[in-house]
């Protein structure tokens, strides 16, 4: 689902420079409004005292029916809203959202073990060179 984003001027300039991290981002519905939390948009390098806070909550612009539909989807246990991408459409910043199920603890352990094994293999290759 595509949603608009309420941003300040320095946030837009920082996004145009291609600097944003969606890694820890998630969507949340509070008091009938949709919010994007945990997304890191770094401060604009040429900004002044009007610069923004990098991890502030940002309001998402959706129609009431869309917010209600997403609220029903995320009401189920284990589902959450995650941002997939940030992009510009006609000069306006949009975010693509998805409803996803969180990882189980055993899935996380498997991923951590796989990542550690890959890191060890990489270290062994570097030592051989």
Number of strands: 6
Distance between the termini: 47 Å
- What helical percentage do the residues reach? 25-40%
Please outline the major beta sheet: 6 strands, antiparallel
Number of helices: 3
Radius of gyration: 18 Å
Sequence of strands across the biggest β-sheet = 2-3-4-1-6-5
Inertia-based shape: flat
In the CATH hierarchy, the third-tier topology is known as Small Protein B, Chain: A
Average the pLDDT over all residues and give the rounded result.
87
What letter string, H or E per element, gives the SSE order?
EHEEEHEEH
Class inferred from helices and paired strands = alpha+beta
CATH superfamily: Small protein B
Which architecture does the CATH hierarchy give at level 2?
Answer: Beta Barrel
Low-pLDDT runs: none
Give the CATH class.
Mainly Beta
Describe it:
- With 129 residues, the protein is α+β, with helices and mostly antiparallel strands.
- It has one domain (2-102): Small Protein B, Chain: A.
- Helices cover 34% and strands 30% of the residues.
- It contains three helices and six strands, in the order E-H-E-E-E-H-E-E-H.
- The protein has helices spanning 9-16, 64-75, 105-128, and strands spanning 2-5, 26-30, 33-37, 58-61, 79-89, 92-101.
- It has a six-stranded antiparallel β-sheet with strand order 2-3-4-1-6-5, covered by helices on one side.
- It is flat and about 55 Å long.
- It starts with a strand and ends with a helix.
């Amino acid at each position: 689902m595509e949603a608009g984003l309420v941003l300040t001027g320095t946030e837009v300039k920082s996004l145009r420079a291609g600097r944003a991290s969606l890694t820890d981002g998630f969507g949340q519905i509070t008091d009938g409004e949709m919010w994007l939390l945990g997304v890191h948009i770094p401060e604009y390098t040429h900004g002044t005292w009007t610069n923004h806070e990098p991890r502030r909550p940002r309001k998402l612009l959706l129609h009431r029916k869309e917010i209600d539909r997403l609220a029903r989807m995320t009401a189920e246990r284990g589902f959450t809203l995650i941002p997939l991408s940030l992009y510009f459409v006609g000069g306006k910043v949009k975010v693509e959202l998805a409803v996803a199920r969180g990882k189980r603890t055993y899935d996380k352990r498997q991923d951590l073990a796989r990542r550690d094994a890959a890191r060890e293999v990489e270290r062994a290759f570097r030592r051989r060179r």
